[in-house]
């Protein structure tokens, strides 16, 4: 006998039932069984019932996942309101990033102590060196050989990290109406990640200086630039992957695992942070006329190539890890 469901859109209670059915399927897959008892709510009247729809079948095949608090489909008014909220949140995130970029372009060391002071404190803990603040100059070490100036504040990385978190969250949940709280949450997380990243970058620069590392291919300034871009983009890529992992928990179904065994799909996951990084480090300075300076083109070459050196091995490692996990679960 065919299973019957309501013609109308699934209610929240029916979606809970579907969720339970998915869980039952996942358990049976784990024990190597493909059969499960299909139990769905009975229809109130025969006229309101039809054979199991393809829509419900698609819902079941998706595997166990997070319940959407808004039963589908949306009405036209709900769709318009959700889309309007998404555009407003996108505009607010971009406006926040642009305002911080403008502030940073005109701020001095004294106005940047909110990020330089905690960074310097963490560097002192990691390296054991001591720094003294000099007004309008920065934090200088006890030997007067290293200065943490305004250019070392990492505000550009803070902006990029914030955009990666905020825009990535908006894109992944573009079909839902999101609370505005994710924007300040993204700002707080980006600030904390910036402090850690900047501490690693400055501490590494101090160690390289102490070890007197030299390269026949790169000058001291170019080596410092290479180290900074490598660390900044490495942490940015890690931030995006972790946030994407936490936001979209992977399904344990075999179909979902097989769809993730694509190296091209893994590379696509790295494109988004790369584009945001290019936009903030090259696109905005280019619009502001930095292309007229000779140093900009040398810096652009480093920014364009170094992230690619990171993406390929990182994507390969992520791909192999997903294949291993998929084979383990199958």
Would you give an account of this structure?
It is a single chain. The chain is globular and about 65 Å long. Helix 1 (12-30) crosses helix 2 (54-61), helix 7 packs across helix 9 (263-287) and helix 9 (263-287) packs antiparallel against helix 10 (294-329). The chain has a three-stranded antiparallel sheet, with helices on one face. It is mainly alpha-helical. The protein has helices spanning 12-30, 54-61, 76-106, 113-127, 155-172, 182-211, 220-247, 254-259, 263-287, 294-329; strands spanning 4-6, 49-51, 131-134, 138-141, 147-148. The chain folds into two domains: 4-61, no CATH class; 76-106 and 154-329, no CATH class.
Question: What would the keywords be for this entry?
Answer:
globular, 2 domains, 3-stranded antiparallel β-sheet, 5% strand, 65% helix, 330 residues, disordered N terminus, 5 strands, mainly alpha, two-stranded antiparallel sheet
N-to-C SSE string, H for helix and E for strand: EHEHHHEEEHHHHHH
Helix content: 55-70%
Q: What low-confidence regions span 5 or more consecutive residues with pLDDT below 50?
A: 1-9, 27-57, 59-67, 250-261
The count of DSSP E runs of length 2 or more, i.e. the number of strands, is 5
Q: What number of domains?
A: 2
Taken as a percent bin, the fraction of beta residues is: under 5%
Structural class: mainly alpha
Radius of gyration, in Å, reads: 26 Å
Largest sheet: 3 strands, antiparallel
Silhouette = globular
